[in-house]
Amino acid sequence: MAWSGEYSIRSLSPSVAPERSLVEKFLQRENLRYERDIEYTVGVFQADTLVATGSIAGRVIKGVAVKRGVRGENLTAKIVSYLKLNAYHNGVNSLFVFTTPENRSIFASLGFSLVVETNEAVLFEDNKHSFRRYCAQLEAIRREDGTTAALVMNCNPFTNGHRYLVESAAAQSDNVVIFVVQEDRSVFSFDDRLHLVTEGTKDLPNVTVVPGGDYIISNATFPTYFIKDTQRIDATYAELDVTLFGRSIAPAIGATCRFVGHEPYCPVTAHYNRTLKTLLPAAGIEVVEVERKEAGGRAISASEVRRLWAEGALDAVAQMVPDSTYRFLLSDTAQAIKGRLQGGEDEDR
Q1: Residues 229-239: tens digit of each pLDDT
Q2: Is the pTM of this model over 0.70?
Q3: DSSP letters of 317-333?
């Protein structure tokens, strides 16, 4: 579709190999990376030459790049406009942009609102009211009586290890708020995970379970296309997520403490815990790391539960999960999930 005599814009499908390759090579020349989860791409052409592009994955705008020599032609604004239109037609009315601090003014000029910024990354959204509403919802569950601790959990599925961490927080705090990561990038859906956490903690009167929402950032969905030093990816993600939690989310619920489980297996999670310990105390938030509950001489992990469940080792699974989780794993609802695991589909989260 042409909008001037010089430029035209059209969709480029990630599922069409030549079109995907065209975008990949263009991004490489601009020192950016193409990410596998891209769902929709637009390209701006000057004659037959690609000079600008942008993509969407879920609710995140990614890979916006304009060729040197045509910058200043308002091509970024045109790309973002088309991406927003596509999102709107697909029922998405709010988009996020992760970018570098040097691009801050570009997206601010396009009407995006700043959510959080660190030295290496910036998070914008195109609906200035969304984050305010989110914080207001958290403030509505805030309790003024006593201390409040926070936990952020994926629970894929909810295990006795998760339960032990919650019990530890509940024993040491007057109130506990559990944020369940909302991204559907796990073997068990968000709805199932939220249900399992709620059922598995309903006997603890000082515990409140809430959806993590869009602002508990998942490392599965954090984009890395703009981070040149790949060794900094995990650090950049952790700093942005922890900064947002410390500056806005914890104050909204009145949390002065965050509990985490010791992580002996996953380097990414272990690094994330170290980032919590580095950044949150400056925000007045104590970080308490709890040793993992063990079964059979090993720390209980959700990935081990999934493996044993897929193999049919139900006696072993029963020793590692609460009764509510075990009943769910035996249900008809869980059998399709089990089939995917047996077919080799899994995410160690």
Answers
A1: 878 888 999 99
A2: yes
A3: HHTTS-HHHHHHHHSHH
